[in-house]
């Protein structure tokens, strides 16, 4: 329900959801299929570990805490 007192039928809601999924499948999927080989060809590494919050926040040596 987007607006108060504005009710839609379940069929309209389902139609909207179906259209949204269709657009995502037709646009996002091809982009992912094209970009993955491009990323591999350029040599961008995807499996880098992220720093933990403790290491990041504890690395300040100037006494300032955030």
Q: Can you tell me about this structure?
A:
There is one protein chain. The two termini are 40 Å apart. The chain has 66 residues and is mainly α. The chain has helices at residues 10-42, 53-57. It is flat, with a radius of gyration of 23 Å. The chain is built from two helices and no strands.
Say how many strands there are. Answer: 0
Helix/strand/pairing class, anyone?
mainly alpha
Q: How many alpha or pi helices?
A: 2
Radius of gyration: 23 Å
Average of the residue pLDDT scores: 77
Shape annotation? flat
Helix content: 55-70%
- Residue fraction in strands: under 5%
Tell me the distance between the termini: 40 Å
Instruction: Detail the poorly predicted runs.
Output: none
User: Would you list the SSEs in sequence order as H and E?
Assistant: HH
* Sheet having the most strands: none
Keywords: Membrane, Transmembrane, Transmembrane helix
Transmembrane segments: 7-28
């Amino acid at each position: 329900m987007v607006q108060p007192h504005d009710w839609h039928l379940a069929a309209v809601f389902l139609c909207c959801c179906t259209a949204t999924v269709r657009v995502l499948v037709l646009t996002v999927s091809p982009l992912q299929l094209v970009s993955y080989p491009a990323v591999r060809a350029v040599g961008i590494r995807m499996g880098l570990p992220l720093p933990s919050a403790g290491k990041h926040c504890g690395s300040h040596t100037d006494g300032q805490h955030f």
